[in-house]
Every structure is written in C-alpha cells, then in structure tokens.
Amino acid sequence: MSASSTNKRKIINDPVYGFINIQGDLLFDLIEHPYFQRLRRIKQLGLTHLVYPGALHTRFHHSIGAMHLMQQAINVLKAKGNNITHEEEEAACIAILLHDIGHGPFSHALEHSIIRNINHEAISGILMNQLNEHFNGKLSLAIEIFNKTYRKNFLSQLVSSQLDMDRLDYLKRDSYFTGVSEGVIGTERLIKMLDVADDDLVVEAKGIYSLEKFIVARRIMYWQVYLHKTVLAAENMLIHILERAAFIAKSNKQIFATPSLLYFLQSDFNESDILTNPEVLKNYTLLDDFDIFTSIKVWCYHEDKILSILSQCMVNRNLFRCQIQLDPFEYFYIEEIREKIVRIYDIKDDELKYFFYTDTTSNYAYNLFSDKINIRLKNGKILDVVEASDQLDISILSKVVTKHYICYPKDVDN
Predict the structure, then answer these.
(1) Can you name the residues that pair with 266 across neighbouring β-strands?
(2) pTM reported for the whole predicted model
(3) Taking burial as the number of CB atoms within 10 A of a residue's CB, which of 40, 53, 191, 388 is the most buried?
(4) DSSP calls for 155-179
C-alpha cells in the first residue's frame, strides 16, 4: 500500500458512534471535495436550534454517520451469507454518503425557496453525476443504487426506504443533539436484525420491539422537534424574509447579499435551469447557511421597513407566535388578527403576507402505501410490520395526521 493510500485511511471521532473509519480512497476523496465540505456549513435541522439550542449539528455530521451505519449493515448482511461484492459495498457507502449533497441552506427550511419545483434529492442526483465525471465514472454504480435502478433492490433500500440508514442516523443524531430522549433508537440492534429475502430487506422477528420503538420514536420526533410550532414559525419567517429580499432585488433597488445569494435573489430559477445552465449549479454549490444569515444581519438596517422588521425579529429571536390545531381556524378569528396586523404595522393589504402565515402540516409514522418494512418470522414467513406487531396498532400510526397553523407577530395579542 502506498503512502498516499495509507494517509487516506482516516478516522473520525463522532459524538454519537465514537470512531468512524473511512474505508477507501474514493470515499476519502469524496469527503474532501468542496461539494461535500459545503455540508459542514449547512445545519442538519435548519432553525431548530432556536428551540433546542444544542441542535447545531450539520449535514456533514449526518452524512458521515449514515455512511458508518451503511458499513455496519453491509457487514451484517455479508456475515449472513448475502453476496455483496467489494464494488457494491463501496457504491452503497458512496450513495448514502452523498444522498444529502443537494441540500440548500438551512436544509428543509428553504427547500423550494432557492430553486423552484425541485427537491434536494433531485439536486443530489445532479451533483452526483457531476462528481462521476470528475472521478472518471467511478460513481456509476453508486448512482444506480441511489436512483433505485440497480438489480439488487435491497442495496437501494439501505439508502432510501422506511428503514434506511438515513432515518436510523438522523433519529439517533437529532435526538442526541436536541436532548429529546424520546427519539433514541437502538440502531445497533436494528442493524444486527437485518437480512435479505427475495431481494428485499427484512428484519428478523427478534427485532420487532426495536422496530416498534423506531416507528414510535419517529412520530414523536416529528411533532416534538421537526414540526415544533416555534420551528414552523421561524422557518416561515425565513422563507418570507428571502421572498421580500428577492422582491427588492428584482425591483432594481440596492440590497446587500453575498454574490451567490444575490444571483438567486435577482432571478427565478427552476429545475430546467439547473440542468442546462452551469452558472446556476455553480452558484448553488457556493450557497450555505452563512450566506443567508450574514445577509439577514445586514438587512436589519435596510430602508425597506418590512425586510428590516422581519430580519431584526429573526436575528434577535423575536419569533412570531404560532398556533397549531387539528381543526381549521375560524374565518372571523383570522380576519381579526389580519386587521390588527395591518393597523399596528401600518402596511398595505398586499404586504400582509409577510406578517401572517397560514398553512397545514402533515405527518405519519409509517406509510402503508410505500415500500413495506417486512418482518421474517421464525417459520420463514414474511409479514408487513403492521401485521407482525402484537404490541402496537401500527395501522393507527400509519394514518396521516394533518394540523392547521397560523403565525403572526406576538405584539398583535397585546
């Protein structure tokens, strides 16, 4: 082994799992690439740290952790006699390592605010194709696994399914950094129970209770962390701050922004633009949380009243009140709040959208209509976890829960 290869056998000390080995030169080179290093500057949970101060971990942390779990899962499956070549093992690790490389600033908070009508998974695929060219086709198999076009379906399920390494890592990691202990799951136990049957991932019957806890933990984490009402308020405020900044930029008025952010504020881009215009992708890969928040700090003193107020509220954590409930809000109640906002902030009716947000948010713990989580009983029979579970009525947890919410400045209630 050459000195250069030896130097690439790095160990990362992870607070969740301990020491993580980077197994292979290509994985090391991908981690070192600027596209991946950008993930150090993108928070895993967007603005959730405004509610849970410890939630400052990044997409970089998460991606490395998911790669580690993938290595563990592959080792378990190989030990149980499943044929996985070295090339497939490396490709699966690359696919999970890069699965979030397309995330924009503040992760999901700005999913459709930078580039319209395209999600981060699609952008991840575009960037993986770019990296494949850079690395002379060495990512081709990983891209097949990522796109679910490879003949071994279970490898794709390890990357993206209802029991993938992505979910196993983010639940455990987000629970750790938020301090929400209800989200703690037994990743090691779940991975030890994995196997393959008819080209699909299955969980051995002994793992049913760990699996039930995983599904319940996911439900709790969504409503207690990911869809926390204050987080919803903060994310909506951020979206509307950028919307106002874009309105000003397109009006040919002076506005400070980092070059890459200004590029997106001045023009609207969609999926076709990122596929056909290299400048769009170039500027996107230069964007991170720092571009956004640096600009917001300056916008606190912008002459535009709306942008200034919203930016100051964000910087000083004077977040809007968020009311959330199962039933729609009464029309007259909403109208009363809207009238107060117009009067207190002395704004026009068409500017009200920056100070009053109403929408719905939905979640389910288990999707009955997606790929199933299958349990293999001791007699070899394969059952969906809904059928196999004797402790929980998972069919109830699979129902979509939709909640209505409204957000508006707190001083409106005074």
Answers:
(1) none
(2) 0.94
(3) 191
(4) HHHHHSSTT-HHHHHHHHHHHHHHT
